[in-house]
Amino acid sequence: MPDQVPAVATKPLRVGLFATCLVDLMRPRVGFAAAKLLEDVGCVVEVPAQTCCGQPAFNSGDRSTARELAMQAIKAFEPYDYVVMPSGSCAGQVIVHYPELFEGDAAWLPRARALAAKTFELTVFLSDVLKAAPRARFEGSITYHDSCSGLRELGIKAQPRKLLAGVEGLSVVEMKDPDVCCGFGGTFCVKYPDVSNKIVGKKTGNIAASGASTLLAGDLGCLMNMAGKLSREGKEIRVRHIAEVLAGMGDEPAIGEPER
Amino acid sequence: MKGREAVFANIKKSLRVSGEDRARREAIAARLERHPRGVVPARGQKADRERLELFRQMVEVAKASIAVLDNKEEVPAAVAAYLRSKNLPQSIRHGDDERLALIPWAKERTLEVTKGASDGAQLASVSYSFGAVAESGTLVMVSGADNPTTLNFLPDHHLVVVDEKDIAGDYETVWDKIRECYGAKGMPRVVNWITGPSRSGDIEQTHLLGAHGPRSLHVLVVRST
Amino acid sequence: MSQAVNSPHFNANARKALDDAFLQKALARSEKGFIERRKAAVEKLPEYDAIRDSARDLKDHILAHLDLYLEAYEKNVIAAGGHVHWAADAEEANEIIHGICKRLDAKTVAKGKSMISEETGLNAYLEERGIRPIETDLGEYIIQLRGETPSHLIAPALHVTKEQIEADFRRAHTDLPPERNLDEPTSLLAEARAMLREKFLAADVGITGANFLIAETGSSVIVTNEGNGDLTQTLAKAHIVISSIEKVVPTREDAATFLRLLARTASGLDLSVYTTFSTGARREGDPDGPLEYHVVLLDNGRSNMLGGKFQEMLRCIRCGACMNHCPVFHAVGGHAYGWVYPGPMGAVLTPSLVGVEKGGQLPNASTFCGRCEEVCPVRIPLPKLMRNWREREFERHLQPAAARYGLDFWAAFAKRPALYRAATSVAMKVLRLIGGKGRIRSLPLASGWTKHRDFPAPQGETFQALWKKRRVAR
Questions:
Q1: Which H helix or E strand runs over A171?
Q2: Topology (CATH) of A134-246
Q3: Considering the entire predicted model, what is its pTM?
Q4: Nearest CA of chain C to the CA of A5: how many Å?
């Protein structure tokens, strides 16, 4: 288990953990895994009262709700040195789209920009900012899906793989087209269920063909989509958020498995 | 409002401009006058012999064939050899280009040479190119009686003679040469950039040669001495 | 008249496409080739991204000065002996073209590939007036025989298999001996070449589109790999170019910039086989070429896009890369989009040209995966533009009630953190109870999800509730 010297110097960093709604509601252990990874390297982790980053509203065209939720998040997370999110797409909302939402707003644009500047997706924060190398064990082969927003808005590709390379007992096997969309797309998957199904079916085919026993990714929405499809197809592949494996929680129930 | 008036009125309304703004007019006049070059790839920027070598490579990448000849006297034999290799009758058609007239075709006794545009009945044509571009293995052909455009498209086999000195590194250099010959804003009726033989990928995305234009393109480069 | 809009039925069209075994086979086959060819071509050109940036900036400059570049273009076409006609809408463009054909007593018209003529519904318009248009691009010819519209910008017959093409040729080419073997693509191509060669030679008028118009010289530019566009415009009595107004570029050098991007991004070639610059009609001493040269410039809603939220869409050079990399296009093909332009570019352009009431489904049918923007040669922010349409729809209450209420319901809680914590805490416990075995196979109100997937049950308590407990416990 990781017990390494904190990568950060004397004064501990205060990190606000923005868990994201899916983690908050569906899978708290991702939040705890993220907190553990941050605390292990000496960060002080706090979880201020939070709801949603506003991305569903933003992508549905409801700009005013998106702005309102963004203001709420800015207020909640402004006090911290850093804000860390275990999701590329929610982090993309804060980092890329919050400043867009307040274009031309003299009062809020600087605050949105300031928050964007100190907000990081979890694997980017661990790998690029803290230069941390979490130590964990995980027996088995995994394949990694690059979620779209993280990949294309934030350039997340090498960071999770670099962190996974340090996990003892774990081997990474790349699937075909790891950077192609899984068909989740937020509300897309319920608005266009048949199209989404076709896309996720291709994805689960590639996942199964990789031969890996576990699928990892950094976004719970995509993970639930792929887990739900794998489960419906009767494919025995476990699905987890990368934070769980990095935090040494890879033996707890996977997504869609009964709690023990 | 219909037609021209409607189109311009709406463009100006959307752009919130009058069309009389001097700064805007000067901006476009300057660009049209100076025709600045964009980003020109380094690939074609090579000294003479390397440029020819690049041209040869790119012509082959484009699925055309190429032969480099030491002088014009070798052209008839090269044409005859090409026709034999394709099992074609010894017959070609070409235009009024003086450079073609100076080729000693009579050296190939069995080679029938006719002149003029194509009506679709010819199997092989010979053209002289205006220029060429090493960057992509492209031939630059200009229309007119010297090298009728139909000769570029109707015969099954198109043979093109290129002077080594006319091979430029990039398209921009050939545009400047067009300006020299046709005036600052002048253009021949047609400029054809030809990069390989005709092809289609429309049947199951399988790439097949010989769609509507020539099935094969053979380039004969005459070295400059 | 213009092509009918079937975009409001995207969902039904998509379901039909998903059930079409021929189509699915065709889509699966084409996906990989486009992506790999583009990648290889781009990797061989170190300056590719720098050219993209300059092309984007250049298009922005052109669009900001569109009126002036069009004026310059028009002047130079006329100076070269050509004719320029302006059409505010599809009907006007069709009338102009029909007028020219009628004056020349044209019976058949050869056509090079033109998406603009698809937009105006030109073929149907001419046919109704006794003039026979013959598509000469092989893909367009195939779909014309089938009575279909193109399903892709540069590969119009992408959705058709070779067995279907054989059947179409046997049906349409009545003098084709039944024993002739047409099993292979090469034999199909030979048959089409022979058949179309006669049509080229017989056509009275040739109509082509334009990839670019050059203001400096009054030239129109087409690119083809087949050479059909050149035969179309060289052999007929008159060459009519039909183009939309945003295709104008300032100079020949600027055309070169776009040409360095177009073929690489579209088909993976450094340059298309034939890039043709046409300036005016046959000149004195010319042994060939058309006797008349006309350009019909169509607006059809584009001028409304200038200076607004969708202007960036007018940078599009119609390479097709966005659809070649789109997971939704790969799943359903082009026809599901229900109008002329499919894929991500169609999802933005269609509502701009036919109205958001009819085209509004399309910008919603995207996962926002962003791959289209990543490959766009002129860096059009397609997801952002699709989101702009969603905002427009939201403002005008055009979204389906269920989606709207679902979102409002969620937002009502999300805006009130205390209420949110209380409500979600209960809700997740209920879901946990339903999903005791870890997965839920069917869930009321979430049938869109559970129709094809299980719903992974939540852990039970929320993260925020558990975190608070942990803090208290410490």
A1: strand A168-172
A2: Rossmann fold (3.40.50)
A3: 0.95
A4: 23
